[in-house]
């Protein structure tokens, strides 16, 4: 039986944990199974096999020896690992949907993110984020209109608390962001996108 970092003082690989925390806050949830065992389920798009393989490896790093199993839903892969101690690692677990209750990190979780902000951002942006092409046009002095294409990252989440954690982590790595819509945080400066690309990599 895997020992718990919180109950038993077992080793926790903080970088993997930070990334998994991002995934949990993005597209993860816990369910309770038999005999108090909890299941961590993370949903992700089937189009990203490398990202899904990475997610399974992360779960196995946080719960040593944990063997993820997967189920397919239309367009979707659900990766699951069972463990009695998931609520110790994700104390944000509670009744109701994440955006209908406060999501506040404990001090030890904040320390994990502060130590590995890029890992946390990778989890957040690879679950609830996207990198897409955007464009704008500008009229030049001679009257012609020129189109400019640029990539941007966007993080979309219904929870103001989770969006706040995303902004906090972006501040930690000095990537400029703005709230571009009610539920959307955008990184769209050229330097900011380049820095975020280098820190978190693309979904693949
Ligand atoms: Zn525990």
H/E element string? HEEHEEHHHEEHEEH
- Determine Rg (CA atoms, Å): 18 Å
Unreliable stretches: none
Bound molecules: zinc ion
Based on Cα principal axes, name the global outline: elongated
For the largest beta-sheet, the strand count, sense and barrel status come to: 4 strands, antiparallel
Proportion of strand residues = 25-35%
Number of helices: 7
Helix content: 25-40%
What order do the strands of the largest sheet run in, or round the barrel if closed? Answer: 1-2-4-3
Number of strands: 8
Average pLDDT: 95
Could you say which structural class the secondary elements and strand pairing correspond to? alpha+beta
- State the separation between the terminal residues, measured CA to CA: 33 Å
Protein name: Transcriptional regulator
InterPro entries: Homing_endonucl, INTEIN
Organism: Nocardioides kribbensis
